[in-house]
Amino acid sequence: MNDSMRSAETLAETPLLDSIQSPADLRKLPVEKLPQVCEEIRRFLIRNLANNPGHFASSMGAVELTVALHYVFDTPYDRLVWDVGHQAYGHKLLTGRREAFAEGNRKFGGLSGFPNPSESEYDTFSAGHASNSISAALGMAVASSLMKDKPRRNTVAVIGDASISGGLAFEGINNAANTPNNLLIVLNDNDMSIDRNVGSLNGYLANLTTSKAYNDLRYKTYRMLKGMRLVSDSGKGSILRFNNSLKSLISRQQNLFEGLNIRYMGPFDGHDVATLVRVLKDIRNMDGPRILHLRTVKGKGYEPAEKNPAKWHAPGKFDACTGERAADKAKNDGMPKKYQDVFGETLVELAEKNPRIVAVTAAMPSGTSISRLQEVYPERVFDVGISEGHAVTFAGGLAKEGLRPVVGIYSSFLQRGYDHIIHDVALQSLPVVFAIDRAGLVGEDGATHHGANDLAYMRTVPGMIVSSPSDEDQLRRLMATALGDDIKQPFAIRYPRGAGKKTEPLCKPEPIEIGKARMLKSGSAGAVLSIGPIASNVSEALDGLDVAHYDMTFLKPIDEQLLHELGKAGKPLITVEDGTLNGGLGSAVAEWMADHGYMVALRRIGLPDEFIPQGTPEELYKLVDLDTESIRKAVEEHTKGL
């Protein structure tokens, strides 16, 4: 057993952590005890996440930072705004949720896996998508400064080096530099997102250094001049610009942040909790925006996670003492493949035959399985970092020059590129393929990650083909169709998280007719129209019922010939989809029937107009009446006596 491994007995020992019910308890401890608190947080995380999986490596790497922030700042009065939220498990443990975390983190009816304001007053802003912390925290800081009747409230945005590369983060930084505020930005630089970071900003941060002595001297000089009334806050900008120019001349290194008149300090060792406390106390009450740059190690304190942080971002279940992951131990022979892997393998097959096929990912090559193509044709894969909007427009540029780009992005993240989809792709009828992963209910990641809206938001885009396969074979067929030479418009294919159901060899990826549904079952009492893999639940629900079942495959263009036939028959119709009812398949069918004068009894089944919490997919399907039993009951009620 190496040094990073713990025995079961050691992992159970967390006496200091057990005594902390709130940050106020933490602040009663002497600084000398904080390293022990950090060690106990790591023990707790290892022990609990081994059996109840979650985001492991990020939270392990941010332990000292979390402890120092709550030790120095008067939370919850002072505001901590976390970016993404992958790193916030330690924060939850220190803010009165230790027992709830152990019992139900990411479980149905339990804690969210991300900061959630409805869960705790210490969670100041929703997190789950990257790059929003600076903008949100800036708004909070400005609002606080306008409330003159209240004591100063400090606001801290914690953001990673991957998230800070996102466009929204840059917009926030630019605004912070030109708006009076006292925002502190803490840059948690671990050289990782989920996969290894890419881009010039990552290289810049890796090389960025600055002199502590210089920072101290400049700050002391400014304080002295201000005390002598030789400089005011309003004149601070010119002083800072002069000092930044002098520093650049001396160090021969331009500091991006100080070029924007944002005070920069660092980089510091993000795992030296005593130093972090000292630095944070020194800069806590400074006026004006400033950034504290910390170097950390993702997965810190657990050797397997330190060695392979990408694999340990969300490792699933593992042996806490040996570090063996259940996913590595399991044999997958004869098991259904994940949809993302079917996508990745099919992409390689098609790319081997067509050299114009390329792929674009926004910091998720392994999460989308675009890494499969990257292994074979690295020059044809472009990881643009956490920049979904740029990914879409970049793909538009590729398509404009004759390539066939496939953009692989999770459904809930693609929402961030919606204007780019409309303006930079669809408006010009560019043949970009959108591989929309994690569509539908994704399970334990909860409301911030469910792919509930893609059918609806893609359906409204002129010229967009919108499709969803009912199984793995249909995914392969849709990919072959989307990348056919005759396609001259954008094409969206949405598919779920997790594995399919097929254990036999999959079909050849051959094109199918666009806008054509498939009959999966005949029946005379009515018909169910479904789209996507929810078809399997529908098939089980209809067993023994005299009701037809059609796999629509395409939401747009929809199968009008089939709808004419069903409209003329006048039998009850039921639509089933694992997307929002507002604007999805049910809406499309209802609108079409109304527009063509058919009076049919229609019932729509899908996700309600509300945010769905975390839980297992099975629990969530039952919650929203998309499980087999609920669908069968709905079909029986709707077709009975009609």
Topology:
Elements (H helix, E strand, L loop, with lengths): L7 H4 L3 H4 L4 H4 L7 H16 L7 H5 L1 H10 L6 E4 L6 H6 L3 H7 L28 H14 L8 E6 L6 H11 L6 E6 L10 H8 L4 H16 L8 H16 L4 H4 L3 E7 L3 H11 L6 E6 L7 H5 L18 H4 L9 H15 L3 E5 L3 H4 L2 H6 L4 E3 L4 H13 L3 E7 H4 L3 H8 L7 E5 L16 H6 L5 E3 L4 H11 L8 E4 L23 E4 L5 E4 L4 H7 L6 E4 L2 E3 L3 H10 L3 E8 L4 H11 L6 E6 L9 H7 L4 H12 L3
Helix pairs in contact: 4-6, 6-15, 9-10, 18-25, 21-23, 26-30
- Fold-level CATH name of the largest domain: Rossmann fold
- Quaternary state reads single chain
Helix-strand makeup class: alpha/beta
Shape: globular
The CATH architecture of the largest domain can be named as: 3-Layer(aba) Sandwich
Distance between the termini: 69 Å
Low-confidence stretches: 233-242, 248-252
Mean pLDDT equals: 89
Question: CATH class of the largest domain, anyone?
Answer: Alpha Beta
Question: Number of domains in the coordinates?
Answer: 4
DSSP strand (E) fraction?
A: 5-15%
**Sheet having the most strands:** 7 strands, mixed
Q: What portion of residues is helical?
A: 40-55%
Cross-sheet strand order for the largest sheet: 7-6-8-9-11-10-15
Number of helices in the DSSP assignment: 30
- Any idea what the CATH superfamily of the largest domain is called? Thiamin diphosphate (ThDP)-binding fold, Pyr/PP domains
> Cα-atom Rg, whole angstroms?
27 Å
Number of strands: 17
